[in-house]
Design a protein that fits this description.
Elements lengths: L23 E6 L3 H17 L7 E6 L5 H11 L4 E9 L5 H19 L4 E8 L2 H6 L1 E3 L2 E2 H13 L5
Parallel strand pairs: 1-2, 1-3, 3-4
Antiparallel strand pairs: 5-6
Bound molecules: ligand DLZ.
The site of ligand DLZ has 15 residues, from strand 3 and helix 3.
Length: 161
């Protein structure tokens, strides 16, 4: 699962569905906002490049990654989005809190993918230090926000072919 040897941010838009008819919801954690802001920019720029209409991309802030679950749940419940992206950055500290947050968010988002028809794309960086997060949010290993947008378009189109 390492992205060290592969930068997945490169994609061929001709091999992807046109996003012009889809509506996207993005929930963004404000914790480590210098990281999540870059992830959000990567995601939005990519959705637009794939044909999404600016007025069909709606972004919502939440305080931290743990709140991504509730935010995404609200968006899924409304049934107006073809795909939802959750964006967060959890960086390991000195206590086990990191593990609980990571596990809670992962499980919570997984549960939403089972509960609702709306796909929820997981763009939560879980890094040991800030440099690893910077490397994956527009640094030397690409931008996971770009990859999340590509996945969102593919999943919004799921079953349409
Ligand atoms: C409390 C906390 C800590 C210590 N670290 C992070 C982090 O690295 N990334 C993140 O997104 N959120 C962190 N939080 C906040 C929790 O996600 C959550 O917002 C609070 O526990 C309140 O529920």
């Amino acid at each position: 699962m390492s992205t060290k040897d592969k930068n997945l941010s490169h994609f061929d838009k001709h091999n992807l569905p046109d996003a012009g008819t889809f509506r996207f919801g993005i929930v963004v954690s404000q914790w480590n906002s210098h990281i999540t802001h870059n992830l959000l920019k990567g995601a939005v720029d990519t959705l637009l490049e794939l044909g999404a209409r600016p007025d069909r991309i709606n972004c919502f802030d939440v305080p931290g990654s743990f709140e991504l679950i509730h935010g995404a749940n609200q968006l899924c419940k409304g049934e107006i989005f073809n795909a939802v992206i959750v964006i967060g950055s959890v960086i390991r500290g000195e206590t086990a809190h990191f593990d609980y947050i990571c596990q809670g968010v992962t499980e919570g988002i997984k549960d939403l993918n089972i509960k609702y028809n709306t796909p929820v794309i997981f763009c939560v960086l879980t890094d040991d230090n800030e440099q690893q997060a910077l490397d994956r949010s527009g640094g030397k290993y690409g931008n996971k926000g770009v990859e999340a947008a590509v996945a969102a378009v593919q999943m919004a189109n799921f079953g349409n072919h």
